Here is the input.
Amino acid sequence: VKAKELGGGVDARGAIEHPISSASGVIRALADLIEKGEPGGLLLAVEQSSVTAAEVGAAATAPVITRDEPQVRELPKFRTADGNGIPISLPAYARAFEPKLRWEAAVFEERPGIDTAPQFPPRARVDEDGVLATDYRLEPLPRTGTVYTQTTIRIPIPDLPSPYSIAVVALDGSPVRVLMKVTGVPAGEAAIGQAGAVVLRKIADRAGVPDYGYAFWPTSAEGDHA
Here is the structure.
């Protein structure tokens, strides 16, 4: 993984980074850590949706291995309907793409008729005098939350296989509630009050164009992880 892709919460200023990604990258990184002679080095490896983190040390004890991996299940059976697919407006798609993927809410300075509650998706507001307010700042939204309510759609339509579940998710530490598709579990399995994470997924195909957005991945029940 490139150091600049680790996110703002990781200090990668002293990281060893190889310019070429390959199957031997982990071996080269281990060799560099050994040559530096610094105990407690952290090795990160990312492959598609799998992330491995290992703390490299000189202890002779066996390492502790923790896996966050759901049990393997059979693929669910989906149904689709014939007919015209979901229509798409490419100009509207382009306008909404960046605000949607940035996962940020608009926050206005308080004035009569406008409070400081975050607005998602970002949008203009009108104050008590009828003045259109567009001067807001963007604040990142939390990427964890709990299911406030949910339902399962079983009627198939073109371009959107069913059944699938949607949920209103109350984001942690934020008044924002977001309507999202549920991913990672069979339809109907998510429960009210269940915690989980906000993840980027392909949520639909619109006229043959893949539509990416955020979905809610519920935390597996205790015992599902090995």
About this structure: Residues 82 and 167 are 26 Å apart (CA to CA). The first strand starts at residue 41 and ends at 47.
